[in-house]
Amino acid sequence: MANLAHAAERKAVSLVLDGLVRHLSGENREKRQDSYLKLVDLAQKFLKETPAEKFDAVRANIKDPNNRWFRMIDDILDHTDPHVAKMIILNLGYEAFLRGTRMIRENRKKYNCNIPWLILFDPTQACNMYCVGCWSGTYGHKSNLTFEEMDKIVTEGKELGVYLYMMTGGEPMVRKKDILRLMEKHNDCMFAAYSNSTLIDQDLCDQIKRLGNLIFMLSVEGNETTNDERRGEGHYQAVMDAMDLLRKNGIPYGTSICYTRQNLDAVTDPKFLQMLSDKGAHFGFYFHYMPVGKNAVPELMPTVEQRRDMIKRIRDFRSPDCPIEFFPMDFQNDGEYVGGCIAGGRNYFHINANGDAEPCVFIHYSDSNIRDNTVLEMLQNPLFMLYHEGQPFNRNHLRPCPMLENPEILPKMVKEAGAHQTNLEAPEEADELCAKNKAYAEEWKKVADEEWANETHKKPSYENYAPEKVAHPELAAFQHADDVKSAANE
């Protein structure tokens, strides 16, 4: 009965989207607003616990012809293949955001553990590039997930409500044949690939247009000089060519930008973001360089003042006054908007190419493997349960990470869980990794606490924290004090 109800519900949503697709261009374009409003009505039926005023605010933005973000959405739709547009909204909007969120929240209560909203996995460790400071380029073809293992991840994830799957590596498109096969089998899911762009060609675009359920996050780091200094000569032009090809074929894409001490000005230059927007990239993630692995280059880490400045820059770019139609997200500094650390299955976790379940793509320790465990069993194993019981690791969400900003925490969890390190190329124990971050953490604490104290914080309606549990008592005093401060600010 549940499957029949799901099929009927998906069909009803599909019919609404057929109307939206008809309004993508030409004389019907002005009717697109009606489809937007129908989608908001649908979302409100699914997310009944969300305050009605939030939906009313979205409706007001839809009706405002000068709203920056709906102008951006319009531009994306204007340049997106109709079938691709429908599949993205159907799979990412309906399956992942609406139906998936409802299932995930129910399963978090049922199983009393973290259930993620997305799963990140590595089809392969292999990469055709050797970027400075990256652990992946030196791995070689040592490990790959088989098609059957990737299929298992998605099949079992869907049973828990997970309908969004991101792929990294290595370079995921080294395995494009199996990825396309996976997309076709699970055509009700949305896939995203973090890619260096070099293997994107017309044949791949043709396959994506046929299936409709893959987008790319392209790695690029500022101008040609700053990009190629770290990623190799000719890479910048390869990204530009891939952007043009994807735009020509109506396939949306975003960016993945690693910001370092050396490139921060280049990757936040308004001219750079305007170029991305003009090319058709209207969204992207910024990732603070993380000194993971023995081959890491800690000198690439942004200074604390650069990171403080990054907070202001990103939020300025997202303000209504910014004319650039590009929405940047900062993995490290946007913790407040996602409740702190999202790893360990709270909102996502990582499965590497050897099958190891890691709390985060930057945390290379594991106590379970997809070859021996189900997805649910991995989420219930000791390491992930310590994440579940310990999150948030810091009530100052500018200091969310148990490795980078709270380096005393990760080694304790790894030891208590009996987890092993998973970096096959350059083994690094948790104590060794976190020791590199102690000085940075102390320096950033002073800046982050000052920034946090000067901001007003609102407690979200849904946080997904374990009730009344603190895995690490040494955090309790700080957490309680910050709760009091946040309440006073409200």
Feature tags:
19 helices; nine-stranded mixed sheet; alpha/beta; 11 strands; 490 residues; disordered C terminus; 10% strand
- The secondary-structure class comes to alpha/beta
Strand order of the largest sheet: 7-6-5-4-3-2-1-8-9
Helix content: 40-55%
Distance between the termini: 45 Å
Order of helices and strands: HHHHHEHEHEHEHHEHHEHEEEEHHHEHHH
**Multimer state:** single chain
Number of strands: 11
Q: Extract low-pLDDT stretches.
A: 469-490
Broad shape: globular
Q: What fraction of residues sit in β-strands?
A: 5-15%
Largest sheet: 9 strands, mixed
**What is the count of helical runs?**
19
Q: What is Rg?
A: 22 Å
Chain-averaged pLDDT: 88
Describe the structure.
- The protein is of the alpha/beta class.
- The protein is 48% helix and 10% strand.
- The strands form two sheets. Strands 7-6-5-4-3-2-1-8-9 form a nine-stranded mixed β-sheet.
- Helix 8 (202-211) links the parallel strand 3 (190-195) and strand 4 (214-219).
- The model is unreliable at 469-490 (pLDDT under 50).
Describe, in short, the structure shown.
The protein is an alpha/beta fold. It has helices at 2-22, 32-46, 52-63, 68-78, 82-111, 147-160, 176-185, 202-211, 224-231, 235-248, 264-267, 270-279, 304-317, 375-380, 382-390, 409-417, 430-435, 438-453, 476-489, and strands spanning 118-121, 164-167, 190-195, 214-219, 253-259, 283-288, 327-330, 348-351, 357-358, 365-366, 420-421.
Strand and helix layout:
Layout lengths: L1 H21 L9 H15 L5 H12 L4 H11 L3 H30 L6 E4 L25 H14 L3 E4 L8 H10 L4 E6 L6 H10 L2 E6 L4 H8 L3 H14 L4 E7 L4 H4 L2 H10 L3 E6 L15 H14 L9 E4 L17 E4 L5 E2 L6 E2 L8 H6 L1 H9 L18 H9 L2 E2 L8 H6 L2 H16 L22 H14 L1
Parallel strand pairs: 1-2, 1-8, 2-3, 3-4, 4-5, 5-6, 6-7
Antiparallel strand pairs: 8-9, 10-11
